[in-house]
Design a protein that fits this description.
Elements lengths: L1 E9 L6 H14 L3 E4 L2 E5 L2 H16 L4 E9 L7 H13 L6
Antiparallel strand pairs: 1-3, 1-4, 2-3
Helix pairs in contact: 1-2
Length: about 100
Amino acid sequence: MMIEFSVLPLGKGASVSAVVARVLRIVMESGVPYKANPMGTVIEGEWDRLLGLIRACHDEAMKDADRVVTTVKIDDYKGKGDRLEKKLESVEEKLGRKLNR
């Protein structure tokens, strides 16, 4: 299973990079495979572990904000694991060239 999520603390101004850095530290220290991107983070693993990780990230952002919006997009594919890299590699193969990553 892959989940893309983003955590957005509201009322903290236009820049939220300090909170994002703390959230990403939690992701990194979890040991869960991940890819950060400018709009969120994609994590891969088992349902309960990933949702627990997202909850920890949301709770971290709540430390500094009265309101936090966390969005979650789930891609669950039976029998398919280790898709964090392979999904884009398959697209690159069909495209015949590398994507900007």
